[in-house]
Task: structure prediction
Amino acid sequence: MNNLQNRIDKELIKEVEVLLGESTQISIIPHSGPDGDAIGSSLALVQYLTKKGKQAQIISPSAYPVFLKWLPGNSEVWIYTNGKKKAEKYINSSDLIFIVDHNSFKRSGDLEEVLANANAKKIMIDHHPEPEQIVDVMFSDTQMCSTCEMMYEFIEALGDEDMIDEAIAECIYTGIITDTGGLSYNSSQARTYQVVGSLLAKGIDKSKIHSNIYDNFSPDRMKLLGFCLDQGLEVLSEYKTAIITLTKEDLLRFNFKDGDTEGFVNYPLSIQDMLVSVIFIEKDDAVKISFRSKGNVPINSVARDYFNGGGHMNAAGGRTEKTLTEAIDLFKQVLPDFYESLSE
Ligand code: 5GP
Ligand code: MN
Result:
């Protein structure tokens, strides 16, 4: 039986009420390379706290894709790498810091040390596995489809559901759909649809949001996708695994912009019988890897054990300083054992 009630720990909410009451300046930190869920949940939170009369600021460790820039409140977001001093000063004079959509300072990118050394009280709101004990109050729930879904629950648990207006609802809805592939995967709990129903009741324009996110690509991005599936795809049928490779030259050729490869890794999972899809993208400083899997295939263990990363069972990421070829070779080398372990 699915639980249709609010799933936030009420005892922890009491602690939040105390912390909010004591704080005058609040920092909100999404993870590095933020996605729709990280930015959506941060924007929902900042607008909610502002409505409550708090001074709050989102400081993103790094930039994010254009297809998220239409979100309400976007222009107020600070990007740490665009102004480090100002951001550090704000964080260091904050009395409360929210760590949003991540659960380890390692995922805070260049802000890792600043956050680890900050004296402020910290609250985590996150849905990834294996949270680190780095905060004073931790909301960590891997059952949630997204941090945005948790943010709705968080605000409701604080007794402020009526403060969720259309703008906040748009931000929350964005994270829910971007983290579930448009409510396709990781979204089988009835409660999620109650939350979505409440967001629709706030007046959000669902079609407009989908169009802003998914119908906003450049011709170059479309051609890069075509190239990727035609030239970059390798199917290892024996292991029900597909690999996509993109070199620096490929990216240059199609005028790569941040976010252009978002979602590419999902395509090979539409091939009959595929269980695993991996994309290797050669960047200037490292190879970035995204992993996706279906069902009970814990691809996050490969990300964690071999590629300095982690994530959810079916969606994980990592990076390596190895060359592109070395990284792919390593993956192919560990694949047979990983595949073997699935049948154990
Ligand atoms: P993506 O492939 O879209 O970058 O990330 C997929 C999922 O894996 C996301 O939930 C993200 O939070 C997680 N993830 C991506 N990169 C890393 C990483 O380097 N370390 C960890 N722990 N998780 C990651
Ligand atoms: Mn998320």
Q: What stands out?
A: The pocket of guanosine-5'-monophosphate (ligand 1) is lined by residues 35, 107, 128, 290, 309-312, 315-319 (CB under 6 Å). The two ends are 29 Å apart (CA to CA). The chain has a mean pLDDT of 96.
